[in-house]
Amino acid sequence: MTTIQPFEPVDLFKANNVNLDILTENFPLEFYFEYMILWPDLFFKSLEMTVDPDFKHNISGYMMAKTEGKTTEWHTHITAVTVAPRFRRISLASKLCTTLETMTDVMPHEVNFIDLFVKCNNQLAIKLYEKLGYSVYRRVVGYYNSSEDGYPDTLKKVDDNKDAFDMRKAMARDKAKSVRPDGRNHKCYPHDVRF
Amino acid sequence: MSEKIEEEILELINRSNFKQCYARLGQLQKQFPNAVYFKILETYAKFKQSPGKFDYKKLLDEPYGLKGTTITGDSRSLEFLHNFFVELGRYDEALHVYERGNFKFPSYELSYHWFTKALEDSNFNQMSKASLQLAKYSDSGNLPKRAYYFWNAISILAVMRFQESTVSETKKIVLAKLARQSLLDLKPFENVQEIIVYCLVLDELFLESKEISEEIVEITLITFDTSVNLYLKNFILKHVKLLDSPQKLFEVCSKLIEKGLDDYELIINLIEAAHKLSKPQEEVQHWLDGNLGDSRNTRLARLKLDMVYTKSVSEPSLSYYLSKYHNKPCCSVDLNHYTDHIDRDMLKSVMTKYDRDDRDLIHHCNTLEMGLIENNPICEYNRFKETLTKKPITDYSSCSTFILEIIKGVCKETSPNLKDILLCISMLENYQTKDPHNFDTACWLIVLYMYLGLVPDAHFHFSNLKIKNVQTDSMDYLQFARFSTSFPNKQSDFYSKTYHEHNNLYDVSLANLPRYIQIAFERSSYSKILGMFEMKDKLMRSYTRWMKTLENLQFSRLCNDKRGNLLQKMHEDWRSLEMTGNISFSDNRDLSILDKDFVQFFGYDKILEFANLNETSILLSLVRELIIEALPSGEKMEQISEFLEKLSSENLNELLANNFTEVESVSFQIFYEIYENDGKELHTLISKLMKIPLNAKQNWKISHIYLTKIATLKTLDNLKRIKNKETQKLVKNSLKKLRGCCDTLFKEYSDAISLAFEELQKGEPMKLLKELDFKLESPKNIKNSLLNIQKNVRNL
């Protein structure tokens, strides 16, 4: 029983059932505030109406996104989409993505496409996004490199655990410019995906 | 006049080099005879030279106070005056200097500074005044004039939401009308953020009425033709319901759902409206399916449709939901909500249909959580433990439910015994290796180690949770509630790394918040600003923040460290709280992570007693530190009397007994006795402290009692005010005696742990562990951890 609600700053105190997940990043407060200030509409949560609101954990997941780029590259970028263990396997992440699409396909955003980055070896997530209409646009070599790995110096060396797929879903106005069937063969450096 | 001059003067003041300070100021005043700034600096120097003799009325109030004769528009002078007044606890005067300066020397810059200072001080009344001043400057700032009317409306909303008691009823009406009218004059609104502010004004500043609701519905509905905004969704839904028009409600909900919003709140309102409009149930169902497709919400909508149309859930609807969700973790949460409307036998039979052999772990857990079957956690775990080996490492297993049920059964008890806790630790340690990312079990493991006072072990698991940034405020209670008397080791990661890193939330992020809120105003991100104020407020008065500050002061006393900077910081933090006009603390701790019904684990001799804090216990700890600070001077502090007055509606000893552990309570009485009665009963109280048995409990209280005694005695030992030789001797002897029994105390505890392990190896507990395929933890690890604590404690 999910309602979609704006994410408020104090929700950060109530989201431990989501954020204690080892794969969910906990950003500095300033980073969350930056998203709330620059893209106030695009930070929202799924709230469970069946959970007693006095019980802190009625947030089942949330979406953090932003808009960026110029002209044909104007798009929505999904920064974080995450769901609490109790509410997994019920397509909640998909629902959050669909809501984002509903919101940014219209005014004032009217983006050309939505994109996100996913580790090349995260088959489960890739499948989920493909089901939602996303496809691989390019491979970002060394996107998840640690400081020890350093910045990639070649596009020839690929590593599924360090590289990201830049996956995109084109809106109607994009006229499929952000879709390419051979996206996995297109490689780029991390600096190429900065807008 | 450079910043260097101010630094130079303040440095001289800090070094109490007043002669040189006045000479330098005299020189500067000769050089700049019209500069008010140096006069203010001189006044400040006089205050710092002898605060007790400082003639506030003559030197500060008469020239610069509320009815002061000297008005300045110089921004540096204003800022210095502001901070000076704040230091003296004169919060009204602090911002009033800006108001008066602005009146005499009006300028955009001055109004802007006034607004910024008011924002930093969370003084929403002053923000509202300053924003109206800003609006007077026709587009002279970075923003168009209209923006400042929105700043003003938000400031008024903040006054009403957070500081309502500061304005009279008449003023409330005036402010509401002012906010509404000034926004109406700006119509048409230029973007969604502006509409949100206008809706907030109507919604929060005016009484509910048909007129208000109609206006909100009208202004918001049209926006959904071209955009989708969640704040506006909430406004329209709330107010269309208040209009009591099913037709309109149906129209609004259907329009929003057609936009693609799969939102249960919209769905249930649409169903209720459709029913009132006598639309057939089937038609509504088809409409929902057609617009939203197959989703959890649309399947649950079938249950809601049944309830609205026929008052009870039908089997086809239940089957439709369960066929897809019987083995999803959300199932029991969803259906338990409708328990009163679902026939239990039907529920049981439909559930069985989807997993006849009861082989699916999540399905099984759902039937348990819906109370459809009897529970035997040991058998259940054994039945499903194989699934733990097959699951991906990042998945969470529902097997933790069975283990935690056993653990919580033990932990519910008052004074759970050592053997049982060690058994629980063994179970959880074993479980954690099979389900390493499960944070429910990890949190309980931390609680169990903390209960035994084994902080290094607890810290190992705490570190694995990678708690950081804003999360620390709600989760650090697991480790940092009474940390100075748990493991006061400056070199450990626990203190040197984690504690300090986590404090960045308050020292850096909280300090940054006013700047971020200011940016939110400037970027017109109006919808989030009230929430940001709430966040700032909750962090400022956070239980965790204050407990850490107070524990750190005790830690410094324990280590004979200088406390000057810590005390100064505490006073500054307190003043920021005080200036909001609301002296209270905010419990942001996430206790629900341990259990829905977490209250049962708190209280005297309960498993979470180490983290049992409340508003009173924090205030009492603050009073304790203030008293200790005041003791050397022998003077009474007004602030302490105010707090004690606020607290002592009942007998002080009773208050202490209800909110502190016994040793904390006696420790408080000792300092209070010196403060209030010059230590007449000090001898008796020290004896009382020493009589508290160190080893009455075999848990965290061993370190806690020992260390609280040591901290108290060391503080007394450093107090020059205690002149009585006999008392001095008693303090020194007590310290010697206490230190003398440290090793024995910890050795006895270590032996008790060994004995408990030996007992565990025999009989039922071992059988239980074997049955679960678990191994008993090694006593060596736990004893090493205890030895680590002992080594650290004995050096204090």
Automatic annotation (TrEMBL), chain A:
Classification via InterPro entries: Acyl_CoA_acyltransferase, GNAT_dom, NatB_acetyltransferase_subunit
A Pfam match: Acetyltransf_1
Gene Ontology cellular component terms for the protein in this record: NatB complex
Keywords, comma-separated and alphabetical: Acyltransferase, Transferase
Keyword Transferase attached: yes
Residues of the N-acetyltransferase domain: 2-172
Keyword ATP-binding: no
Name the UniProt record assigns to this protein: N-terminal acetyltransferase
From TrEMBL, chain B:
InterPro entries: NAA25_NatB_aux_su (IPR019183)
Highest taxon in the source lineage: Eukaryota
Matches recorded under Pfam families: NatB_MDM20
Family: Belongs to the MDM20/NAA25 family.
Protein name: MDM20-like protein
